[in-house]
Fold this sequence. Notes:
Blueprint lengths: L1 H20 L7 E6 L2 E6 L7 E2 L5 E5 L10 E3 L10 E3 L25 E2 L12 E13 L3 E5 L6 E7 L7 E7 L2 H5 L19 E2 L12 E4 L1 H9 L6 H10 L1 H6 L1 E11 L18 E6 L1 E4 L8 E4 L2 E4 L5 E2 L5 E2 L41 E4 L4 E4 L6 E2 L5 E2 L3 E3 L11 E3 L14 E3 L3 E3 L4 E2 L5 E2 L13 H21 L1
Parallel strand pairs: 11-12
Antiparallel strand pairs: 1-2, 3-16, 4-8, 5-6, 7-15, 8-14, 8-16, 9-13, 9-15, 10-11, 10-14, 17-18, 19-20, 21-22, 23-24, 25-26, 27-28, 29-30
Helix pairs in contact: 3-4
Amino acid sequence: MYLFLVLSLHTLWVAVSIAMQHGHYDMCKTQTKSDEGIVWEYMACQPESRDMTPYLKVKLEPPNSTCGDPPEPFCAMGNPYMCNNECDASTKELAHPPELMFDSEGRNPSTFWQSVTWKNYPAPLQINVTLSWGKTIELTQNIAITFESGRPEKMILEKSLDYGLTWQPYQFYAADCLDAFRMEPKSVKDLTSSTVLDIICTEEYSTGYATHTKTISFEIKDRFAIFAGPRLHNMASLYSQLDTTKNLRDFFTVTDLRIRLLKPATGATFVDERNLERYFYAISDIKIHGRCKCNLHANSCTFTNNRLACDCEHNTTGQDCERCKKNYQGQAWSPGSYLTIPKGTANICVSSMPSNCYCYGHSNRCTYIEVVNTAVCVGCRHNTHGQQCEKCKKGFHRNGSAKLDDVNVCIANICDNELLRCQNGGVCHNNMRCLCPSGYTGILCEKQKCEDTGSCSSKSGQESVSHNLYLITMIIVTRLCTF
Ligand SMILES: *[C@@H]1O[C@H](CO)[C@@H](O)[C@H](O)[C@H]1NC(C)=O
Ligand SMILES: *[C@@H]1O[C@H](CO)[C@@H](O)[C@H](O)[C@H]1NC(C)=O
Ligand SMILES: *[C@@H]1O[C@H](CO)[C@@H](O)[C@H](O)[C@H]1NC(C)=O
Ligand SMILES: *[C@@H]1O[C@H](CO)[C@@H](O)[C@H](O)[C@H]1NC(C)=O
């Protein structure tokens, strides 16, 4: 007995530790043994985090802001007197198209997108680089934008959650935040759990015309660390925050990102108007890691016909598994939940087709009503009604010797309070008969007992005639419905 306990504790421990290792929510279901045999157990799940750049579309505004059409000279960064470089869109070796922001790094010489130079000075050289996925994704790692030239002196990173319809700033970047955006400079390190959603302006990444540091970051991990600890060892804590705080979840969710390049690196107070070939933007790499947002109902996401879509489980459907499949709308859709680590709660969609017992066989159709979050049987037969056809409709009462799924479950009332009144002071008993006061008889006590007096003044009122007619009709109707 003791050994058994130790063994099962051990087994439990192994199971838990395996589940902890798979705390990435990488399984949507598993088979387990239960009293009813082998059953499926469902779990919250999500796709693995990966490089999301292969799946995006890039758009430049204005569209003609890539250098090289027509060919133009530019100066080497860091050496404004070496201006014999050329950008030529029609020559592969000299072209710098936008795709080069996303090709593999580590090539020598490095490959990069490059903009036109600031030849229209003093008109600002401003370019929007929009990255669109056509799918909601959740960012999991820092966004890193590496500039081949100096980092811009003014830039805004923006995000959209509605496929580019509306935009919100994500972070402001400037050499001088007050001057550029009238914002106090801040660092992500200044943020706390109550200010984690604040949009800040940072000066950390905008200085250095000639430094070796070329990267601009949007710090996802530092924000995660506010909840999960410095080395993200407590992801459970982060997940439970994400579960309960929609704003926080949405903060890391995007459909599009937009890099608004507002002023190139100049490295000086004054713009050198005689050498405008010095000023341009050049981006050699953009890193964006994330995962498809599948509402914790899918552990993979596929890219087909240039479109990302979740491979939905739990009988959900839609690009983000954001609704229940047809015939699985037995209760309101809801996202899976990270809570109850390590497996989470799957919140699977349940069938809205009545199972044998849902409408007790009195209907084979039900409809899901959103406001009350329930399925309701439609067209209950056999004189039943109610959400599950579990009640008798008006004028009928429950047949005590019939089960709920019996076609005879509801029988017509002989009397009740509303429709069929016992007359002359009779009292309705169990909807089946009128208990008549002495002196009266008949189903509804409508007849006077006249043996004694011999002089019955039949009170054949119209009322009792119509009640009798009603009663007969009801009985016929009941019979018709029953068969
Ligand atoms: C881009 O096109 C617009 C309108 O066609 C034009 O005004 C502008 O000068 C062009 N810019 C460059 C850098 O060629
Ligand atoms: C970039 O986008 C912003 C916001 O829509 C817009 O106001 C601005 O004119 C765009 N910049 C360029 C260069 O098209
Ligand atoms: C979804 O529906 C199918 C078909 O009825 C069923 O086999 C499957 O187990 C369901 N999955 C879940 C997660 O409920
Ligand atoms: C009540 O149900 C039983 C079982 O189906 C049936 O035999 C009986 O006839 C029903 N009673 C009436 C009054 O219909």
